[in-house]
Amino acid sequence: MADVGNMRARYRRITRFAARYLVQAWWYELFLPRLGLSRISARGRAARLQRIAQRFHVLAVDLGGLMIKVGQFMSSRLDVLPPEITKELAGLQDEVPPVPFPAIRALAEAELGVPLERAYSFVDPTPLAAASLGQAHRARLSDADAAQTGLTDIVVKIQRPGIDEVVDVDLRALRRVAGWLSRVRVVADRVDMPALVEEFAATSMEEIDYLHEAASAERFGELFRDDARVSVPEVVWERTTRRVLTLQDVTAIKINDVEGLRAASIDPSEVATEFAAVMFDQLFADGFFHADPHPGNIFVTPRVGPEARSWTLTFIDFGMMGEVPDGLRRGLRRILIAAASRNGKGMVDGMRDVGVLLPSADTAELERAMTKLFARFGGMGFAELQEVDPREFRDFAIEFGDVVRSLPFQLPENFLLIVRAMSLTSGMCSSLDPAFNIWDAVEPYANRLIREESGNVVQGFARQAVSSASVAARLPQRLDELATRIEDGRLVAQVPRIERRLDRVERMVRRVVSAILFAALLIGGIVLRADEAILGTVLMAASVLPLLHALFAGWASGRGPA
Q1: Percentage of the residues of the chain whose pLDDT score is greater than 70
Q2: Cβ(20)–Cβ(27) under 8 Å?
Q3: DSSP H or E segment with residue 308
Q4: Which helix (H) or strand (E) holds 314?
Q5: Beta pairing class for 230-231 and 311-315
Q6: Mean pLDDT, residues 365-375
């Protein structure tokens, strides 16, 4: 049981940190611009962001628990954060200090109900990997268990002692911070922060239940049972509880070990293409996906024998899994098809289907911005983007900079994990192959989706015909009601105010890098990765901040959201 005093101190440290930097954001992004001091606000923005990231890095490493998870989400550009933040937080993935083995042994023996020497013939006291919620140790099954399961070498994943109390405190602190943000109109109008925290909480509670993770591993394995591209470790249920998980040892070449891949005669660019296709299948076809595909969770396993494929992608760590409901999956498929066909209007329609854009949003300017975006930058890979004159990015930003910020948007349920998975996928593929072009991966997959969707054309026409017949059947009644309203003098015509429309257009003409980043966020292409110099150039030149800052920057105009 964690010390109550320590838990209270932990709660205070988290909430005080958040309060301090929320006040700082209010001062620089709202108060100073309203006094006409926007230049002062913008001048030190990059340095401020870097300091915040550095201090959060220190806080997360010191506290561990869910603070590490929060940092990992930010480092994967969940909110399209700029390099000043993502680079500083990237190391959190591999920086978690391990728990001393005696404490791990005590927890494992309490869970399994037997001494560790009876449960396993050998356990390596040095952890294979240490994560924020648990750590993994190499081990071997006892002779009896090995004979029963057919496995010998295994990995035992054991929770950190007291992690339940730590997670509870962290979630209470995050809920309080979300409550503060929900009182900020410009945030509340666009993002349901309490709902996002609850989604994060549900995912975190599933992660500390190893029985749930074991079931997810088997479900994932079943989906790819007949797919030669993917393999999954077997679960040793006899040695698995809520806090101890025993799996087949499938350690192989880390997916981002380019030199190791080449030494095994495996082409990293082929791995990138295959990995992207597998992740697309999970998101757009299966609807059940690995939401934490960082390098430590995916191996490339060389095969021996006459098989046509010389290697396979081996996934581990199924604690963070996501599901894509049918409606959301249809919207994502539509976005993917629109991205492949460079269809700006289709992209915006897909955003609406997904639920990111509210039905009331006037998206004419966004459609034009998307169309221009695709016309100029569609199909470019990282290498080509780096050749683009930064002044062109700046001009693009000046013309369309605030389009997305003017629209009522929100992050729908389940979207947090989808964005994380796609961000990590894009970054992984680019690290494997710097010339990797996401469009090359999207187009063949989108063409397949188009072929699959073509079978629904006849059904679509039938539904449209039924809808039209229904409208026609109600038409006489509606005409009669209209005539009655005219006779009674109750007919009211609502005409938009020209001044407001002109003012809206004038403001929207100034507005795209937000649209560029937002589009990249949604299509899962994530054309720019955090450690690319060009992204830093674009962000600094255009003074465009991440989604979190975009929410606060709406205050800078002094007129609130459009």
Answers
A1: 66
A2: no
A3: none
A4: strand 311-315
A5: parallel
A6: 73
Whole-angstrom distance, CA of residue 415 vs CA of residue 354: 9
Instruction: Look at residue 195 in the predicted model and tell me its pLDDT.
Output: 81
Hey, what long-range contacts does 61-65 have (CB within 8 A, 24 or more apart)? 61/92, 61/95, 61/96, 61/97, 63/10, 63/13, 63/14, 63/170, 64/96, 64/97, 64/132, 64/160, 64/166, 65/132, 65/133, 65/163, 65/166, 65/167, 65/169, 65/170
What are the angstrom distances between the C-alpha of 145 and each of 210, 418, 540? Answer: 20, 38, 59
Q: In the Cβ-directed half-sphere of 188, how many Cα atoms lie within 13 Å?
A: 9
Pairing of strands 129-130, 134-141: antiparallel
pTM of this structure: 0.70
State the Cα–Cα distance between residues 499 and 494, nearest whole angstrom.
15
Phi, psi of 444 (to 5 degrees): -65, -35
pLDDT in tens, 514-539: 433 444 444 444 434 444 445 444 43
Strands (E) across 37-141 are located at 120-123, 129-130, 134-141
Report the range out of 7-16, 56-65, 492-501, 504-513 with the highest average pLDDT. Answer: 7-16
pLDDT digits (tens, 9 = 90+) for 123-170: 999 999 888 899 999 999 999 999 999 999 999 999 999 999 999 999
What is the model's pLDDT at position 46? 80
Mean pLDDT of the chain: 76
Please list, residue by residue across 454-484, b when 16 or more beta carbons sit within 10 angstroms of its beta carbon and e when fewer do: eeeeeeeeeeeeeeeeeeeeeeeeeeeeeee
Spatial contact of 289 and 176, defined as CB atoms under 8 Å apart? no
Q: What's at 198, amino acid-wise?
A: E
Q: Is the pLDDT of residue 511 over 90?
A: no
Residue with tokens 């409208």: 471
Local structure of 463: helix, strand or coil: helix
Please report, for residues 266, 302, 314, 432, the alpha-carbon distance to residue 262 in angstroms, rounded to integers and kept in the order given: 5, 11, 17, 11
Q: Report the SS3 class of residue 311.
A: strand
Backbone φ, ψ for residue 235 (5° rounding) = -95, 135
Answer whether 237's CB lies under 8 Å from 404's CB: no
What phi and psi, each to the nearest 5 degrees, are found at residue 248?
-55, 140
In whole angstroms, give the CA distance from residue 28 to residue 41.
Answer: 5
- Note whether 355 and 328 are within 8 A (CB): yes
Span 97-131, pLDDT tens digits: 899 999 999 999 999 999 999 999 999 999 998 88
Q: Give the 3-state secondary structure percentages of the chain, helix then strand then coil, rounded to 5.
A: 65, 10, 30
Amino acid at 258: V
pLDDT attached to residue 460 = 45
Q: Exposed, middle or buried by CB within 10 Å (0-12, 13-18, 19+), for 115?
A: exposed
What is the crossing angle of helices 438-454 and 268-280, to 10°?
A: 40
